[in-house]
Write a structure and sequence with these properties.
Layout lengths: L1 E5 L2 H18 L4 E4 L6 H12 L9 E4 L1 E3 L10 H8 L11 E2 L8 H14 L4 E4 L21 E4 L2 H7 L12 E4 L2 H4 L4 E6 L5 H9 L17 E6 L7
Helix pairs in contact: 1-2
The structure holds 2-amino-2-deoxy-6-O-phosphono-alpha-D-glucopyranose.
């Protein structure tokens, strides 16, 4: 695991975007694994700028997202489907048919997990972008998720519900369940970039990099990956 400490959020975003731009310039047909959350927004904005300036194109790119809430329609402003359109897909030349996000509104949630798992298998990712939960989660793989997990339904940890409640009008509106790509599937990407910013991530960053490799900190599984770059800002790095 390579760790890069950047000065601030803008530099984290720029370093992450640079890696993806190089990948897309070398491999215009790349498959990207994408994350939601506030952290990757700056990176997605930069990628949209690069695309507008015609320095990269998403015309032949495929994407698979990490996770989605159960029970929110894709038109809901807090659904991850909506997030991806707003922060990336609507701003670049991607074909929506080439993008994939779990359907958290499926009538058959277990069937949807199996479908998504098969899809991931058929689309090996060249680069996987990740954020980090303040409890060390990646995707929505909460603490104690086995490292060999595949796509599954998860009951969100209380800390995750409370972290994500800032984006909803009311705590009671935050979905309690989600579908997430599993840890074993995350680790299958050829290259992984994890981004973390802010003091509230400092403990999780420390546990991920310096703690034991254990399901108690799902992100610690990334230390088993042969090509994982962690890019953090100075506030998230204070405990290193
Ligand atoms: C959510 C997402 C994660 C994301 C995390 C951190 O729980 N499921 O994929 O990494 O939030 O979000 P933020 O970047 O907003 O801190």
């Amino acid at each position: 695991m390579k760790v890069v400490v950047a000065k601030n959020y803008d530099e984290v975003s720029r370093l992450a975007a640079d890696i993806i731009v190089k990948e897309l310039q070398a491999n215009p047909c790349a498959t990207l694994g994408l994350a939601t959350g506030s952290t990757p927004i700056g990176c997605y904005n930069l990628l949209s700028d690069f695309c507008r300036r015609k320095q990269i194109s998403f015309a032949k790119v495929k994407t698979v997202n990490l996770d989605e809430y159960v029970g929110l329609p894709s038109s809901h402003e807090q659904s991850y489907a909506y997030f991806m359109r707003r922060h990336l897909f609507d701003n670049v030349d991607i074909e929506l048919a080439n993008t994939a996000i779990p359907n958290g509104n499926s009538a058959d949630i277990e069937g949807e997990c199996a479908r998504y798992s098969a899809l991931i298998k058929s689309l090996p990712r060249d680069v996987q972008v990740l954020g980090l939960g303040s409890n060390g989660h990646i995707g929505f793989n909460e603490p104690c998720t086995p490292f060999d997990s595949t796509t599954h339904v998860v009951e969100l940890a209380q800390s995750t519900v409370s972290d994500n409640s800032r984006l909803f009008d009311d705590l009671n509106d935050v979905p309690r369940r989600a579908i997430t790509m599993g840890i074993s599937e995350i680790l299958q990407a050829r290259k992984v970039i994890l981004l973390a910013c802010g003091a509230n991530k400092a403990q999780a960053v420390r546990d991920m990099i310096k703690g034991k490799i254990t399901p108690d900190c799902p992100a610690s599984a990334l230390r088993k990956h042969p090509d994982c770059v962690v890019i953090v800002d100075e506030s998230a790095a204070v405990l290193l």
